[in-house]
Amino acid sequence: MTANLRLIQQGICNGYENSLIELYRHFHDRLQQFSLSIVRSGEDAEEIVEDIFVKLWANRKQILSIDNLSVYLYVTAKNRCYNLLVQRGRSVQYSYEDMVDDMASPSLDPHKLLVSAEMMKRMQAAVEDLPSRCKMIFRLIREDGLQYKEVARILDISVNTIDVQMAIATKRICATLEQQDGDVKFLPKSSGRKK
Fold first, then answer.
1. Domains of the chain
2. Residue 169's closest CA among 189, 194, 195, 147?
3. Model pLDDT for residues 54-91, shown as the tens digit of each residue
C-alpha cells in the first residue's frame, strides 16, 4: 500500500477528488476506531476524522511533503483527540487499557488470514486476553498492517518496545491456542518484522 499511498498523495496534490475518496475509504474506519478509543465519543471521533480529511484536502498542495501518510494520519488523529480532551478540561491520560478496550479493527478479514471462523474466534479471544499495551500494539501491526517504526512513532515509544511487546503477544497467543488444541503446536514465524 505504501507505493499506492504515494500515488494517492500525488493525485490529491493534483486536485483529484477520487484520490481523496480512496484515501478516505482506506483509513476512515481505522482512524475513527482509534479516535474513539481515546475520546470515548462516537460523535467526537467522527468529527475529528472528518476534520482531518477536510484539512488534508484544504492543504493538498503540501501533501507531498508528508513522508509517511499512514503515520501522519494516526498521529494527527491522536493529537486532535488530545487537544479536544484538553479543550474540554479533561486530563489527557495515555492509558493503553482505555484505548484498547474499544479499539476493534475493521480491517481483520478471516478469509485473508485463511483460518476457520472457529479458529478466528479462538485467536480473537487470545488477543483479548493480552495485556492492554500488548493488545494495542498487536492490533496496530497485525490487524491494521502498520510497521514497527510506524507504531513506535504513533505511540511515541521505541521500536525495541514494539519488538518486545510483539514477542510477548505472539508467545501468549500461541500458548493459549496450544492449550485449547492439545497436541497442535503453533510455532511463531521467524521475525516477520516489518521495519
1. 2-87 (1.10.1740.10), 96-181 (1.10.10.10)
2. 189
3. 999 999 999 999 988 988 999 899 889 888 888 887 65
